[in-house]
Each structure stands twice: as C-alpha cells, then as structure tokens.
Specification:
The chain is of the alpha+beta class. The protein has four domains: 10-64, Arc Repressor Mutant, subunit A (Orthogonal Bundle); 71-113, no CATH class; 125-208, Roll (SH3 type barrels); 222-301. The protein has eleven helices and twelve strands. It has a five-stranded antiparallel sheet with strand order 7-6-5-4-8. A four-stranded antiparallel sheet has the order 10-11-9-12. A three-stranded antiparallel sheet has the order 1-3-2. Strand 2 and strand 3 form a beta hairpin.
C-alpha cells in the first residue's frame, strides 16, 4: 500500500487500488477510468499524485517504474540506499535475492557500483524470521521467553547487535536479577513474546550504543593508554576501532589514545593486529600479560 494519509477516504482508497493495478501491468487513462468508475480528468489528477511513487507515462499507458523514485533523490540519499543494498546482500543471499527486484528497482542498478564486504556470518531464513519477532519485542518492550544453550530464559531484549561479523542479542536476564548478557543470535531458539513489559533507562541505551566487541559490558572496570606509531595513526583517525580520546599528538606523527574497557579481550585483538606499531603505556598489568603471551607463543613455535 502507498504511504498516503492514514485517514481512510474514497480518494485514498482509489489511489491505492490504482497503484496496485498498475504495478501488475501497464494501463491507459481511459481503461483506468472505466475500471474505477471515474472520468479521465480524475485519473489524470490521480496520476500526478502517483508520479511521486514511481508511476510514469510511457506512450499512451501508465506503468510502474521503481527507479523513477530515485530521480528526485539527492546523492546522499542514493548512497544510503546503495549501502543498505550491500548490507542486505551480506546479511543473507536468500534474503537479498528474494528482494532483489525491489532493491534493483529502487537503486536503478546503482548498487552494482558499490562493494561493501563486512565479512559476516550469513543469516538463514529461520534467523531472519527470528529477527522480525525479536524486533517487535524490542520495539514494544515485551519480555521474551527463549532457549539458549539448552537453558530456558525469561529476558528483556534490548538490542540486536552486529559485532565483529557476528549477530548478537543484548538482553537482561530476568532470572539473574536483570544481569546483562549477550546471546549469539543464530543459537537462540523457541522465542515467544510475553505480554509482560519492561523499561530501560536512557543511560543504558546510550552505553549500549558504545559496544564495539562481544566482550563489552555495561561498566568499564579499567582505563588504558596506548601509543600508536605514525605508520598506523591515520587508521585510528579514520575508523573508530574503539571509543577513545586522542590525548596526545607527538612531533614524530605518533599519537596516544585513552579509553575505558571492562575485559582485556576488548583490547588485546586490536593490539595484536597492529604489532609492532602499537604499545601499551598503561595499565602495566595489561602490558605484562601481552608480553607474556607473545613470549609463550614464540617459545612454542621456535
């Protein structure tokens, strides 16, 4: 249906019916007038409204052309739709191909000009169905019942999160005093929405938006300071690997950053990725752990 006024009236009903008819096949003005019991001038006025929704005139007939809606979009809006198309293809090939006609129609082929590889796990049909169910629970703040790791849970679903190529569901476990947990989304089974509702604070929602890793927790326990060599400093300026503060710009082009973390595994993969161009300045215990692990690894392979 068209996103017309919600108030049901004769005109809006006719516009929706004409739109659905034209989507099925092209039709001439006089034919539409006969089918919908109005005169040709009324159809003409209706078509002017429907032009905004992709209806175009080709010869003597009116037809639906999804790409026509793209002509009035800004470059920024076109880019957003193209990135959405890339994300859809990365999420699930099945999902993408089932909606490829809609996506291609909206983009007019533009999605083929952009490559976005997320390196993520693919979602199957069952997972996409669960997505819809969980989204509804999150939107309406309904407690859900589900099975995870062979255990039954009553949980408050907070956010579906895409982290490091995997999909998770952030919840508060009702059975453990609202303990914050992360469930691997594809492993959640038997989801049922209950009529029970819950509330979450603005502070919690704001904090969750800062998640960059599955090791994320609601509270930071530690504070780290890293030295970043000039060779890789530009990457940290370009991409928010972590929520950090740039605390020092050195004359040699290197930088120092500071950030909070709750689990060493939020930090270690990042450090190992950029060795030897990154060093832990603080805390000393984290630096010692990393050196010990590297020494142990070198000892095993030597």
């Amino acid at each position: 249906m068209l996103p017309l006024k919600q108030v049901e009236n004769k005109k809006n009903k006719r516009l929706n019916q004409i739109f659905e008819f034209i989507k099925s096949r092209p039709a001439k003005t006089q034919e539409l007038a006969q089918i919908f019991g109005v005169n040709a001038k009324t159809i003409g006025r209706d078509m002017e409204i429907l032009r905004d929704y992709g209806v175009v005139k080709e010869g003597w007939s009116w037809k639906y052309d999804p790409s026509a809606q793209m002509r009035d979009l800004s470059d920024e809006e076109r880019l957003v739709l193209s990135l959405i198309a890339s994300l859809c293809e990365n999420i699930s090939s099945d999902f993408y191909f089932k909606n490829s006609e809609l996506i291609s129609g909206l983009l007019g082929g533009m999605d083929e000009q952009i490559l976005a590889f997320f390196g993520n796990e693919k979602l199957d049909k069952k997972s996409i169905q669960k997505f819809s169910l969980v989204q509804k629970a999150i939107k309406n703040k309904n407690i859900i019942k589900c099975t995870y790791g062979k255990h039954e849970f009553r949980a408050k679903p907070i956010k579906i999160a895409f982290l490091e190529g995997f999909w998770y569901l952030f919840v508060f476990d009702c059975g453990e005093g609202d303990r914050f947990k992360k469930f691997h989304f594809k492993d959640i089974e038997n989801i049922k929405i209950t009529p029970e509702v819950f509330k979450t604070s603005v502070q919690v929602q704001k904090r969750i938006k800062q998640a960059r890793s599955v090791w994320f927790e609601l509270e930071d326990k530690y504070r780290a300071r890293l030295w970043i060599d000039e060779v890789i400093a530009k990457y940290f300026r370009r991409k928010p690997y972590i929520n950090c503060d740039f605390t020092r710009e050195c004359e040699d082009g290197s930088i120092e950053i500071e950030f909070g973390f709750s689990n060493p595994m939020e930090v270690k993969p990042l450090i190992y990725r950029f060795l030897p161009h990154i060093k832990v300045v603080e805390p000393a215990w984290l630096n010692d752990e990393i050196k010990a692990q590297i020494a142990g690894y070198l000892g095993e392979i030597s």
